[in-house]
Amino acid sequence: MHTSTALLTDHYELTMVDAALQAGTADRASVFELFARRLSGARRYGVVAGTGRLLEAIENFRFGDAELDYLRAHRVVGDRTLDWLADYRFSGDIWGYAEGDVYFPGSPLITVESSFAEGVLLETLALSILNYDSAVATAASRMSHAAAGKPLAEMGSRRTSEYSAVAAARAAYIAGFSATSNLEAGRSYGIPTMGTAAHSFTLLHDSERAAFEAQVAALGADTTLLVDTYDIEQGVRTAIEVAGTGLGAVRIDSGDLPVVVARVRQLLDDLGATRTRITVTNDLDEHTVAVLAASPVDSFGVGTSVVVGSGTPTMGMVYKLVAHQNDSGAWVSVAKKSADKVSVGGRKSVRRSFNPRGVATAELIFLGDGPGGEPEGTERRPGHGDHHREVLVPLVTGGAVEPGHTGTEGIAAARERHRRRVAELPAVAMSLTRGDPAIPTEYR
Amino acid sequence: MHTSTALLTDHYELTMVDAALQAGTADRASVFELFARRLSGARRYGVVAGTGRLLEAIENFRFGDAELDYLRAHRVVGDRTLDWLADYRFSGDIWGYAEGDVYFPGSPLITVESSFAEGVLLETLALSILNYDSAVATAASRMSHAAAGKPLAEMGSRRTSEYSAVAAARAAYIAGFSATSNLEAGRSYGIPTMGTAAHSFTLLHDSERAAFEAQVAALGADTTLLVDTYDIEQGVRTAIEVAGTGLGAVRIDSGDLPVVVARVRQLLDDLGATRTRITVTNDLDEHTVAVLAASPVDSFGVGTSVVVGSGTPTMGMVYKLVAHQNDSGAWVSVAKKSADKVSVGGRKSVRRSFNPRGVATAELIFLGDGPGGEPEGTERRPGHGDHHREVLVPLVTGGAVEPGHTGTEGIAAARERHRRRVAELPAVAMSLTRGDPAIPTEYR
To answer: Is a pLDDT exceeding 70 seen at residue A381?
Structure first.
């Protein structure tokens, strides 16, 4: 793996820089905006995730000798552009939705203000990270609500590519999951990791009892024993015989879970293991989690569905030039004019409005405005008991990443922000059916 | 990014090693099998991809100080296991389907024979890579057929996470795409890259004409001009005025493509640009590519749909212990017994059978057998004009990766193998509807 992120981008970003440098337009001050025209999957709200990863990736967006050699050998750009790229580092401003916040159609999630050339280079990388991470976080947020307070662990590493798995663990944690199976996510992001044994461990041993004895000897009686390799009822009995009534938990990975779980709870109680927990892990998604939340399940492990966004593996975000200066220094708002892909040009600021009970009522997008002059969280009271909150926050200023958005500090802040922001949404936001956004986007 | 791939795995793989080392069962000779119970998305055939990446990742699967420090600090395993991990390198045998081949339900795509501990550690990594890469390749293969010989470029980097994008470009290339927009895929895997300009480049300039002039000055008249930022017909006229009738291509990224493409072809011809090609890139998938293949389109750029597997972002493959030796050295076939997740225990070999016309008729899985003693491609003629071919190939022998499967050599071989193997399938394999596998899997 290369440390530089500079080639995690599309060929045409570099040819555009090449042509703009020759034309003398590369230095025009420009504003790019990353947004989604709609909520993919007819979700009721989106969850912003990946912002901290993007800021870290921008810090490593450098063209070193290895990158320049490749571009030179394959004649992607000319010598003048190679020289320019060698000196590249993003020196502009970025503001946007803070990670963990919710978003709606048209929300300007990331706004990049810089020269055209500096900003256009970040297009592919920004979209890759935000589109994937937000798809996972949006699905995970629905699951977190469906679980009704019972803990969820992300266990989907095997069902997405090996580095997506690490990003997915991070996004799910921000959206309310409490742990992951992925060790690299533990190392890179400080997320709690968990796991005990698979069916192969039971099958390796000469009997289920021998496998349970081996696991309890190594991991203690507080471990989680997987009881469904052969017969679940017998598995539970053997588990308690081996570990005693202090067994931490049993895991069930197959069968008709609502029925099986009720039987296992009864059996555990009958055996005196009243504090042994039940965790389930069988191809769960937000719908099955919602059904099981009312059963005597204690925790959930979610795999495939969370890492592939539960039917919506990407959020359809785009990155568009919305304004630039012309040669006389005047700002020009721009937007593509085709009938089926409408964009709204110009700089924007955003306020979320709330009713007197503190429930969000609309996402207000103000056109022709810079970012809010007031910090995130500034509240205004326009009368009638309603109030507004500024949504956009500075992320990069003069090329320097603002503190608090990256690393484990950023993840913790995003997780807490997500919890608070989702709680402000109207009840319809929690519907698991497809439908309209929970609050309207209004342009002012 | 860390060079080691050893933490791209699930916590429980390590706790299983920890417990098995304590129990004295870690060294039992074992056979693990990676397979899919069904073809996700009701595809007619699957395409094996990621094998070369997996072999490269196994070579970097080492626990260095950084990995061991993390595991120690978080008490994932005990000291004895840390010492064992420090010396870990896979020393067993791996055989399987060669990359680019097609597969069916139950096909043993990867078989790992080693000690339990050595083999179990590779579970998550193997599944991550094969599940994602094969999902992309399977979708890309359908698109390649739908394009009826017209070239396809993979342009979906922005719609999947930044490293998945690189893997997706590789998988799509193996399945018949001819290029990618992703520069890292160009550098890492030698795949041809392409791209010229986005709408932002047109919008940056004071007029569409000025943008086209800038692009032609930098990239030459043989470039591809994006003509749909404002009005397509006017865009085409301006493009030919600026570049001349030697313009390489026009790109169309919006509108009702079959109608628009026919009009643009007529207009180009009327303007004398009879050799200027038309490329289209508007949210295409295998279905829209099939519709457009009969129109005067010259090439396709496919984005979102290919990198997310066109509705099937993961192939549902699993990695199961199918056999192990007991303490007396006898081999024991094992399989989970639950009703809804049937596995077939034991070692397997595979032959694909063909009718006298060379059309594949069945995937024959022989139980209780080792890998085929004959090399891939060995043909047998059991009579009646039918014949068989051995499917499995050695991938790792005694810990050493077999030549020909990794790097650019492996990719080229996989791309050629894919072309030949798909051509042997019966016509129903090319149906884009959901349905049964193109040939049955038969256990012998």
So the answer is: no
Chain B CA closest to residue A315:
B159
Q: Does B87 touch chain A (CB under 8 A)?
A: no
Residues A283, A302: one domain?
yes
Mutate to test the interface with B, among A10, A28, A161 (most CBs of B within 10 A): A161
Cα(B202)–Cα(B225) distance, rounded to whole angstroms? 10
Query: Where does a domain end: A288, A307, A326?
Result: A307
Residue B4 lies in a domain: no
- A201 and A220 fall within a common domain: yes
Domain coverage including residue B51: 11-136+312-443
Using the Cβ of A131 and the Cβ atoms of chain B, whether some distance falls under 8 Å is answered with yes
Give A424 to chain B, closest Cα distance, Å.
29
Residue A159: strand, helix, or coil: helix
Q: Which helix (H) or strand (E) holds B31?
A: strand B29-36
- Interface check for B132 against chain A (CB to CB < 8 A): the answer is yes
- For the full predicted model, state whether its pTM sits above 0.90: yes
Assigned domain for B425 exists: yes
* Chain A contact present for B8, CB below 8 A: yes
Q: Where are the alpha helices (DSSP H) in A191-278?
A: 199-204, 208-219, 232-243, 257-270
pLDDT at A342: 59
- Direct distance between the N- and C-terminal alpha carbons of chain B, in angstroms, rounded to an integer: 46
Partner residue opposite B338 with nearest CB, options A15, A157, A254: A254
Dump the DSSP string for B100-164: T-EE-TT---EEEEEEHHHHHTTHHHHHHHHHHHHHHHHHHHHHHHHTTT--EEE--GGGS-HHH
Among the ranges given (A332-336, B100-104, B418-422), the one the predictor scored with the smallest mean pLDDT = A332-336
pLDDT per position as a tens digit, B178-203 = 999 999 999 999 999 999 999 999 99
Same domain, A163 and A285: yes
* Cα of B95 to nearest chain A Cα, Å: 20
Are A228 and A117 within one domain?
no
Shared-domain flag, residues A241 and A327? no
Tell me whether residue B48 is in a domain: yes
Same domain, A432 and A337: yes
Question: Alpha-carbon torsion B269, B272, B275, B279, what sign?
Answer: negative
How many separate domains does chain A show?
A: 2
Contact in structure between A30 and A324 (CB atoms under 8 Å): yes
Number of neighbouring beta carbons within 10 Å of residue A216:
20
Q: How far is CA B185 from CA B32, B129, B173, B223, B407, in A?
A: 31, 16, 10, 22, 12
Q: Which of B200, B268, B263, B269 is nearest to B238 (CA)?
A: B268
A121 and A155 assigned to the same domain: no
From the candidates A3, A11, A251, which should be mutated to test the interface with B, based on the most B CB atoms within 10 A? A11
User: Which of B196, B316, B203, B317 lies closest to B247 in space, CA to CA?
Assistant: B196
CA-nearest of A373, A344, A356, A375 to A442 is A344
CB B18 within 8 A of CB A196: no
Residues of B in contact with A187 (CB under 8 A): 7, 66-67, 70
Q: What is the mean pLDDT of residues B158-184?
A: 98
Q: What are phi and psi of A308, to 5 degrees?
A: -110, 20
Write out chain A residues lying below 8 Å of B162, CB-based. 5, 8, 57, 125, 128-129, 163
Pick the last residue of a domain from A307, A326, A358. Answer: A307
**What is the ipTM metric for this complex?**
0.95
- A248 and A298: one domain? yes
Measured CA distances, A38 to A66, A103, A342 (Å):
39, 10, 11
- Give burial (CB, 10 Å; 0-12/13-18/19+) of B78: middle
* Interchain contact, A11 vs B186, CB within 8 Å: yes
Closest CA to A298 of A323, A273, A271, A318: A273
Domain presence at residue A277: yes
CATH of residue A23: 3.20.140.10
